[in-house]
Write a structure and sequence with these properties.
- Keywords: Bacterial flagellum, Cell projection, Cilium, Flagellum, Periplasm.
- This is Flagellar filament outer layer protein Flaa domain protein.
- It comes from Leptospira vanthielii serovar Holland str. Waz Holland = ATCC 700522.
- One of its GO terms (biological process) is bacterial-type flagellum-dependent cell motility.
- This protein is mainly beta.
- It has a single domain, classed as Galactose-binding domain-like (Jelly Rolls), CATH 2.60.120.
- It is built from one helix and twelve strands; from the N terminus they run αββββββββββββ.
- The strands form two sheets. Strands 1, 3, 4, 6, 9, 11 and 12 form a seven-stranded antiparallel beta sheet that branches.
- Strand 7 and strand 8 form a beta hairpin.
- The N terminus and C terminus are likely disordered.
Length: about 210
């Protein structure tokens, strides 16, 4: 009985002071779809490189025949990188993916032809700082579901009362492996991008008062 009373008091204390115990978060997370590559049109205008003008870019296409082994996938984005185009480049979404909820993690099925390159996610924080978050080394062959933590890498708390902040996902950055066979053709594919999110907690003007809608 004493232990139960202490547990109840601790839970009440954490709740009043704006902290939620781990057990209370059960059920508040939900999965949302960020991009399924079915509606937007992707072409070479979505590819950018900082190398000299005229640098050959990869071939980009949308394929209904080459998708990840996940339920509901109808189309995937495919990048074919010929040997004479195996240089660093960025792939930007036609429109940045803006998320106002609190993101726990993002999951992306990625196909690799075992090129040993590297793929990162380009994200703009709520402070308009653009950062690259490492996704995976492409040292495997086949499809692989990649999950990356956002909550551990970005501050997503609203700093101004009732002013919603957001994270914007801009695209991907590909960095080739210098030791690749010069005759090797690289193939990378990306399928449905999903995220685990929850609603943001409202900031407290007075930490002794719990704000309600």
């Amino acid at each position: 009985m004493i232990a139960l009373r202490i547990s109840r008091k601790l839970t009440l204390f954490l709740f009043v002071f704006g902290m939620i115990p781990i057990g209370a978060e059960t059920g508040i997370w939900r999965e949302i779809l960020l991009e399924n590559f079915e509606l937007p049109n992707y072409n070479r205008e979505n590819l950018r490189t900082k190398l000299e003008k005229g640098t050959k870019l990869p071939e980009i296409s949308l394929s209904a025949n080459f998708t990840a082994p996940i339920p509901g996938s109808k189309q995937a984005l495919v990048l074919r990188i010929p040997k004479d185009a195996n240089f660093p480049f960025s792939l930007y979404f036609p429109k940045p993916i803006e998320v106002n909820a609190f993101i726990k993690e993002i999951t992306i099925p990625i196909y690799s032809s075992q090129s040993n390159g590297n793929l990162t996610l380009i994200i703009e924080s709520q402070d308009a700082e653009v950062r690259q978050l490492n996704l995976t080394s492409l040292n495997y062959r086949g499809w692989k579901s990649i999950t990356v933590s956002i909550s551990k890498n970005f501050d997503q708390n609203d700093r101004v009362f009732l002013q919603k902040s957001s994270i914007r996902i801009l695209g991907f950055f590909y960095l080739p492996f210098e030791g690749n066979d010069p005759n090797q053709e690289v193939l990378v594919a990306i399928d449905d991008i999903t995220a685990i999110v929850r609603d943001k907690y409202r900031p407290l003007r007075n930490k002794e008062i719990l704000l309600e809608d």
